[in-house]
Amino acid sequence: MLVSLESWDTLSNDWLAAFERAVEGCDRRSIGQLFIAESHWRDVLAMTWRITTCSGVDAIARQFVADAAISKPVHLRVDRNRTPPREVTRAGAKCIEAIFRFETAVGRGSGVLRLTPEGKAWTLLTALDELKGHEEHVGGRRPSGHGYSRTFGGPTWSDLREAARDYSRRDPDVLVVGGGQAGLSIAARLAQLELDALVIDRWPRIGDNWRRRYDALRLHNQVHVNHLPYMPFPPNWPVYIPKDKLASWFESYVEAMELNYWTGTEFEGGAYDEQAKRWSANLRQADGTRRLIRPRHVVMATGVSGIPAIPEIPVLRGFRGTVLHSSEYQDGAAWKGKRALVIGTGNSGHDIAQDLYSSGASVTLVQRSPTLIINCDPSAQLVYGLYSEGPPLEDCDLITASVPLALAKRTHQLATAHARELDKPLLDQLERKGFRLDFGEDGTGWQFKYLTRGGGYYFNVGCSDLIVEGKIGLAQFAELERLLPKAELVVLATGYKGLDALVAKLFGGEMARRVGPIWGFGDGQELRNMFVRTAQPGLWFIAGSFAQCRIYSRYLALQIKATELGLI
């Protein structure tokens, strides 16, 4: 770099001060001079009440002046309480990365600035942290009111919690559909903003959405990336968390965070009253009784995909054995000594094939389309390198949010190329076995496959090695008819339909068309209809990995709070 270690802080603050002066003066030319030509500004609510990315120096200057006239950003300074400015490499290029703080007319925010060696901005993030007067009840703002004081002769904390969960005399502000990491994350954030949220889940026990999945399942990314908001996992937890351990943590989390949660409750759909600005949400409870509640907001937290995708496979019509979708599979003990076919070569397909093999079944994995294969450790963890660099979790999350799409793609191309070199011996052997490999669009790797289609990859934890060794068979889909006569079990590891199909099922085709595609990238540089306001008032979506849910639940909760306050 062209600057010394001692001057990084000064250089960053000087840039921020110059930027603030240019914005205050509505001086597009001066703003433009502070950025390189191919620059990016990502705003997460702070200036625009949207999650949006603006690219190119002229577009940034024009848009920032327009938005700042309303948001009025001031006091842009390096945040002394966070990771100090430092030299880093992002997307293959060296830069100075600085975390800063600022205020707007309605709130306080944090940002990330990346400067080139010449001292011009390459990327800029502005993100809203909190609304003035409506800060979270954490740290120095701990709750101390009703239920937390020593009240003799009155209702106890337990009495108040039971009443809060009952909803016999009130409706929640927000109905959260789905009690996995997405639902728990947004419910916890809403509670800290004093919004009344009810989480419902169809399973009979909190955590069953993980507990009831196949027995061999563990998280495929490491523990330090996967915390829920406010309550990190204990420091003695394993690197890769077993699904049952995670399920039990969900129960503890709900209790500790005082979340209102109804198990055994199915969301059967709803309609929106434009005049009252409320939903009529139809719930069916475990005992068969039905309940109508009228929240102002519905947050769909059912995951990236909700309805099992079961393709029409003509050759299966005459099959006399057992056919299961991967969502129905639990363990291979019952199939010892039997012949099984697993159709689909994503994570679930490989894991189920390995579980069946370990249980003594004879297994063939049937490939339908090319699949990305990457060793779980270390190759698949390369994209999480930031979380091992040293900054605290909150800073890592902010830095992660600061990466615009163009840089993210380049970063993942580099990581994927590195992983291919690390995994070359395995990949070469798989190709010799006839496995068809894929490395994502433009070589962007597994995470962009996840962001665009929700699957199409496998983190190798041993199944690929078993294929190479011939212990698990490999066939292509065209060979299925030949294999079926000897099989006794077929597992369809064929994934799930997208959220669009779930919206149509629960709210009707008209609303699904109004909302449009959910997940994946459209014409813009952001995920479609995810974590943001949609075309349907009061309908929100949250999904993704633990890290995505932890990061973006903050911003989703802030938008719902701002809506309640009449700010947006």
**How many alpha or pi helices?**
17
Biggest beta sheet attributes: 7 strands, mixed
| Count of the domains | 3
Roughly how many Å apart are the termini?
A: 43 Å
Kindly report the CATH topology of the largest domain: FAD/NAD(P)-binding domain
The structural class is alpha/beta
Please give the oligomerization state of what you see: single chain
How does this model look, in words?
This protein has 568 residues and is α/β, with parallel strands linked by helices. The protein is built from 17 helices and 24 strands. The protein has three domains: 127 residues, Nuclear Transport Factor 2, Chain: A; 207 residues, 3-Layer(bba) Sandwich (FAD/NAD(P)-binding domain), CATH 3.50.50; 183 residues, no CATH class. 32% of the residues lie in helices and 23% in strands. The strands form six sheets. Strands 1, 2, 3, 4, 5, 6 and 7 form a seven-stranded mixed β-sheet that branches. Strands 10-9-8-14-24 form a five-stranded parallel β-sheet. Strands 16-22-17-18-21 form a five-stranded parallel β-sheet, with helices on one face.
